[in-house]
Amino acid sequence: MRLLTSFSGVLSMPAEHSGALRMKDMPDEGCTMFSALDGPLYNRLHQLTRTEISDSCLNSRVAWNAGFNYRKVLLEGSLCLISDGGVFTTPHLTWPIGELDRDGLKRIVDTLWPVFAARQWPFRLMYIDEDNLDLVRDMPGYRAKLAYDPDFDDYLYDAEELRQLSGKSLHGKRNYLNRFCRIYPGFEYRPIVREDREEALFLVKSWCDEKGLDCLNFCISDYRAIRQVFDDFASLDLRGGSIRIGGKMTAFALGSLMNADTAVIHFEKADAKYDGVYAAINKFVLDYAFPEARMVNREEDMGLRNLRKAKESYSPIRMIHKYEAWLQKTD
């Protein structure tokens, strides 16, 4: 998901502001630490939010929270998450979770503006859906500089096409799947459970070790993010599955049902030594963990060439842009 140090290469925070004051230094703003325990409120408000962006899912927020240091505050009936930038980016407010109109957004920004100003943080609003841009553009009293980085666009697919792997564009994936089933006829698919934690983390760490990567470095590995969702498994509506060959976990996927008809696949890991295993876990997790999903969001490619090639090979139906706004007062 978010293994790069900035969200947008177009706009970046001035160096003199980065790390100027951390969120732990603001005890009097009514903000408290965000965690999986906020799930019931978050999920209720998320259903009222006009968003397609995968980052807004509770499971994603919880997974990567330690890298963003999010604090929460309830304003205008919406849950607002404020980050000091953490290890990934610069200070920002995520798009508020809840039902929101232009006046409500203005009141939220008015309330939080002094928090950002006191720390000499530019006011950066992140994870804005295209359908919400007019709320930002037309907000009285503020001028918005908008940007988005295509490296962070989400890939959206027709779920049934990925289940059936039909058509010319997916013929190669069907061949991979058939080969997998032929070579490993005794494979076993299982729904993901909390007890899969150690095997799943071992699979991730093994991949990192093969690549010479530090699995504990948030900026280059999703090991800690995956560990976090397993640790909070009981508090999250986490769906997914694993494939075992000879009793050994060789692949797993973890995701969310974002709304009534859209699945989000947050993590997908496999031992590539098993021919066709990626095609298999991709299909089976949609078959069994998300049978009701009409669409599937497989998140962004972060500008990584091999990841982009893999995501494009499944023929997305469209891309979901994630906008950000840098706000300035006009009065």
Return Rg in Å: 20 Å
Helix-and-strand structural type: alpha+beta
Low-confidence stretches: 1-28
Overall pLDDT score:
91
Number of strands: 14
CATH topology category name of the largest domain: Aminopeptidase
Indicate the percent of residues in helices. Answer: 25-40%
- Number of domain units: 2
CATH superfamily of the largest domain: Gcn5-related N-acetyltransferase (GNAT)
Biggest sheet: strand arrangement: 1-2-3-4-5-14-6
- The number of helical segments is 10
Model description:
This protein has helices at 39-46, 58-68, 102-118, 133-137, 159-164, 171-183, 197-211, 223-231, 277-288, 305-312, and strands spanning 32-33, 71-75, 78-83, 92-94, 123-128, 142-148, 154-158, 188-191, 239-245, 248-259, 262-270, 295-297, 318-320, 323-329. The strands form two sheets. Strands 1-2-3-4-5-14-6 form a seven-stranded mixed β-sheet, sandwiched between helices. A seven-stranded mixed β-sheet has the order 8-9-10-11-12-7-13, with helices on both faces. The model is unreliable at 1-28 (pLDDT under 50). The chain starts with 31 loop residues before the first strand and ends with a strand. It is α+β, with helices and mostly antiparallel strands. α2 (58-68) crosses α8, α6 (171-183) packs across α9 and α7 (197-211) packs antiparallel against α8. It has ten helices and 14 strands.
Question: Quick summary of this structure?
Answer:
The chain folds into two domains: 23-152 and 322-329, 3-Layer(aba) Sandwich (Aminopeptidase); 154-299, Gcn5-related N-acetyltransferase (GNAT) (Aminopeptidase, 3-Layer(aba) Sandwich), CATH 3.40.630.30. Helix content is 31%, strand content 24%.
